[in-house]
Write a structure and sequence with these properties.
Structural class: mainly alpha
Shape: globular
Helix content: over 70%
Number of strands: 2
Strand order of the largest sheet: 1-2
Largest sheet: 2 strands, parallel
Distance between the termini: 34 Å
Amino acid sequence: MKQRLFYREWAYLAGILTMAFGAAFMEHAGFGLSMVVAPAYLLHRASMPMLSWFSFGVAEIVFQAILLAVLCLILRSFRFSFFFSFVTSVIYGCCLDGAILLVEHLPYTLAMRIVLYIAGMVITSAGVAFFCYTYIAPEVYELFVVKVSKKFRKPFHFCKTVYDCLSCLFSLILSFTLFGFGEFVGVNWGTIVCALVNGTLIGLFEKLYDRLWRFEDKFPKLRRIMP
């Protein structure tokens, strides 16, 4: 199969948009969010009665800032390039709030919820895979997994699966802490399914992209100024 040209800068934009709409789809479906974004969603839901401006997107920005601080503690260093990942997180948070505004008007039938859940899980994985082909800094979530996998010399997909499972467990604990044992908020069976298959889906999308496209720089000068 002949590969078509796909610019790395477009991969960056595609990654942000697909992940934003993937999270919005899963939020509307109500079967449980991706374990990666579930902690931020729980913070958003817990803060809603007191802080109406603390949207899902804003919660994402705050949580990723905390995760970045944890990464710096693990690595025992801070690199200027990490700042660009935080900028990406801010852009993603804004896109997420926009996607939620568009998706919230969709029907809430069982069939639509199932379609949105599956679509959300799949395109979120596709978005993460796009970031493997761009030189522009990914979200803090992906940065965290990449840096930890390099530090401990473990395969990216292995570390991604471990991170997803730990994030799923943390989300369950956070949900019970904030909302009690009588209600599952943001975390449900869909979260567990996503934790188990997300790493595999990302690997499959990487193989698909390698077959379909060859990735090149559209703006070489932009790449030179990126750390």
